[in-house]
Amino acid sequence: MSTLVSATVNDLIGRDVTITYSAQARASVDGKRFLVTGAGGSIGSEIVRQLVSLGAGAVYMLDHDEGALHALQLELRGHGLLQDDTVLLADIRDGRTLRRIFAEVAPTTVFHAAAHKHLPLLERFPAEAVRTNVLGTANTVRAAAAAGVRRFVNVSTDKAAAPVCVLGATKRVAEVVTAREAKPGTAVASVRFGNVLGSRGSLLPTLHWQLTHGVPVTVTDRAATRFFMTIPEASSLVIEASAMASTGETYVLDMGTPVSIQGLVNRYARHLGVPAPRIEYTGLRPGEKLHEELSDGAETRGSTEHERIWRMTSTAPCPTDFPARLQRLGHAAASGRDHAIRAHLWSLLPVGSAARAVTAAA
After folding, report:
1. Taking 60 as the threshold, does the pLDDT of residue 6 lie above it?
2. Domain ranges of the chain
3. What pLDDT shows up at residue 131?
4. DSSP string spanning 261-286?
5. Burial code of 214-245, b = ≥16 C-beta within 10 A, e = fewer?
6. Mean model confidence pLDDT for the chain
7. Coil, strand, or helix at residue 58?
8. What angle do helix axes 338-347 and 351-361 make, rounded to 10 degrees?
């Protein structure tokens, strides 16, 4: 947000925020052709900005939100005429259109940032989560493979670790889909990270509005914590991880220590000159955790050549009939049968992560 300076960000999340690029990351961008899905969103648009600044040969921006594409083109080009062939209006749910676009654009690397991400809404509308986060990801990976894309990076979330909500479960399944659907010759990876400060609809803009309008700040629980990153920080590390992608790994970004939500509220209130913010404790909503996790019992964590990126290795197999189960999930989503959607969704999770999720969802 524009009201935040670097020192304030550091204070809010309890650590220094620095952005640097390795020689490997720079080389992976310089002169290459990129396509970013969800390019109008907070993370997608920042990935676009950074790719442009790092000397990408071409950056194609795909989104189904024409207003977001207009705003991004205006920022990057100084006009919003929307006649540039790098601006692509499409929905990742439409696999046929994606295949045509990917064949025409022929990108070297794809950053897949398009997703539904608001936890409470997706608990209420699981079919929408499945259509975009799971089936849309499958469409995107398949289109990339058919077009001979060399590198595919799926932007994921820490909620995919030991998922207890529809958002987390769909993103975990999307990680599996990313790894399974890629063809030989395409390097693929998923990258998990936590909440980003200032993204559209996230905690900080909501908190800013509540504090500046004098209404009570809503906090789920006094003890609740979350991992936080800035949008530029997360995006730069996603680009770093993309340079390491190979055979379907899942990477997790180092987000420091979990941050107390109540503590963040008080620090931000002081920054805005609000001496004693009123806080209402609403309780955890369905699918919410008190504390987020980075991995679950089905994964082991290892280091990479980058000190702020970890590699997660799954120790549990996916169902042997995964394609058939994925198809059944699609049928359930098309019919809008919420109970069947949840059952099929959780049946697709790796064995070690599904038990906790089923228990939590019961």
Report:
1. no
2. 17-196+228-254+297-357
3. 98
4. HHHHHHHHHHHTT-SS--EEE--PPT
5. eeebebbeeebbbbbbbbbbbbbbbbbbbbbb
6. 91
7. strand
8. 150
Sign of CA dihedral 79, 115, 4, 256: negative
Separation CA 1–CA 27 (nearest Å): 30
Contact call for residues 69 and 61 (beta carbons, < 8 A): yes
Q: How many residues does the chain have?
A: 362
Alpha carbon distance 193, 308 (integer Å) = 11
The pLDDT tens digits of the residues spanning 232-262 come to 999 999 999 999 999 899 999 999 999 999 9
Q: Scan for tokens 């609740």, then name that residue.
A: 224
Q: Residue 270 contacts by C-beta under 8 Å, 6 or more apart in sequence?
A: none
Is the separation of the CB atoms in 155 and 189 below 8 Å? no
- Catalytic residue numbers read 159
pLDDT at 1 over 80: no
Q: Which residue has the tokens 């955790």?
A: 289
Q: How far apart are CA 227 and CA 263, in angstroms?
A: 13
Measured between alpha carbons, how far is 181 from 135 in angstroms, rounded to an integer? 12
Cα–Cα distance between 142 and 24 in angstroms, integer? 27
Q: Where are the beta strands (DSSP E) in 270-336?
A: 279-281, 299-303, 309-314
DSSP state string for 61-113 = EEES-HHHHHHHHHHHHS-----STTEEE--TT-HHHHHHHHHHH--SEEEE-
pLDDT at residue number 81: 82
Torsion of CA 258, 44, 248, 131, to 10 degrees: 100
User: For position 338, what pLDDT does the model report?
Assistant: 96
- What fold, for 17-196+228-254+297-357? Rossmann fold (3.40.50)
Separation of alpha carbons 125 and 114, rounded Å: 17
Helix axes 42-53, 66-77, angle to 10 degrees: 30
Token pair for 57: 């040969």
Q: 110 - beta bridge partners?
A: 35, 152
Give bridge partners of residue 249 from the DSSP assignment: 189
**Residues facing residue 39 across a β-bridge:** none
Lowest mean pLDDT among 2-6, 102-106, 110-114, 169-173: 2-6
